[in-house]
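Q: Given only this backbone (316 positions), what sequence would you predict?
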């Protein structure tokens, strides 16, 4: 029985390097092996080997993936594995060049954020208000701060209790990069936070954790002494079910996206939305103009009578 080929030995050496030097998990190594063996099979049909692949051969492979309908993000992951393998061969002196050095990654585009509409947001709040205290007022405050304040879930759970003062219409938030920003709160959010503060003591743990929990706006009796991001996500999915919504469509970030999109829909200028979201670059905020444009286009397509007509008859 023939032993492993030189290309196979090089592949295994590369995978061993990933495990030893980069701590790659077994699943990661298996994914790299599958991706590189798929390339090897394609190259073999062209008379090339994996470790001696030409730039043209790899380009042809990427074209093959595109023609097969592979998603750009998956193809980009494949190309990343191919790049790393050939950079390893070059660095180890196992080949004299890197055939991937001039290859461009597939254009991924930017996926539009998932959102829910205003009616669905209202349904969530209505469902939260049906919950008895203390859980109900806490849920209402969480939804209001995520949707009416546009907070990231990490910012929500990191809020110290002194971030809100009685009757205040603003919230001091510490976001990414340790940057602070002032978030204006709608009257409904101010009311919700006030109602929650009245029942907040019910969530404070007893014993040694109490002193730690006192500092957080949303304390918890769990080991972290405050709500975790995961628990907030679970609470929202449970609330979605109660409101008759698909829980797969709801997450804390979906509420933040809804906040921004509904502001842009209402005519808010991008600079103001950027400041409220805490985006360092306005290009990040501009995605919400695309969301609004897409929704308007869909609205015209679905409801305008001209859009529902077929193409005009050609004159004979």
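A: Predicted residues:
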């Amino acid at each position: 029985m023939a032993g492993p080929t030189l290309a196979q030995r090089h592949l295994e050496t590369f995978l061993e390097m990933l495990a030893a030097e980069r701590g790659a998990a077994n699943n990661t190594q298996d994914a790299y092996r599958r991706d590189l063996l798929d390339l090897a099979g394609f190259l073999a049909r062209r008379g090339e080997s994996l470790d001696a692949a030409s730039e043209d051969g790899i380009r042809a492979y990427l074209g093959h993936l595109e023609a097969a309908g592979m998603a750009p993000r998956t193809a980009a992951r494949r190309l990343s594995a191919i790049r790393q393998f050939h950079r390893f061969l070059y660095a180890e002196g196992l080949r004299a060049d890197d055939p991937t050095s001039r290859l461009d990654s597939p254009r991924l585009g930017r996926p539009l954020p998932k959102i829910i509409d205003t009616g669905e947001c209202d349904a969530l709040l209505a469902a939260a208000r049906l919950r008895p205290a203390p859980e109900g007022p806490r849920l209402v405050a969480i939804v209001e701060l995520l949707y009416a304040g546009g907070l990231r879930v990490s910012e929500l759970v990191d809020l110290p209790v002194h971030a809100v003062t009685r009757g205040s219409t603003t919230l001091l938030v510490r976001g990414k990069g340790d940057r602070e920003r002032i978030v204006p709160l709608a009257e409904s959010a101010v009311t919700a936070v006030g109602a929650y503060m009245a029942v907040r003591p019910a969530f404070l743990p007893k014993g040694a954790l109490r002193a730690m929990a006192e500092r957080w706006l949303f304390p918890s009796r769990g080991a972290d002494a405050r709500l975790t991001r995961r628990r907030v996500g679970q609470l929202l999915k449970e609330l979605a079910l109660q409101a008759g919504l698909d829980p797969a469509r709801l997450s804390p970030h979906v509420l933040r996206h809804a906040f921004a999109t509904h502001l842009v829909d209402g005519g808010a200028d991008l600079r103001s939305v950027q400041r409220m979201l805490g985006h360092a670059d306005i290009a990040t905020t501009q995605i919400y103009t695309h969301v609004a444009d897409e929704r308007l286009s869909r609205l015209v397509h679905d409801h305008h009578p001209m859009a529902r007509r077929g193409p005009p008859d050609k004159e004979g």
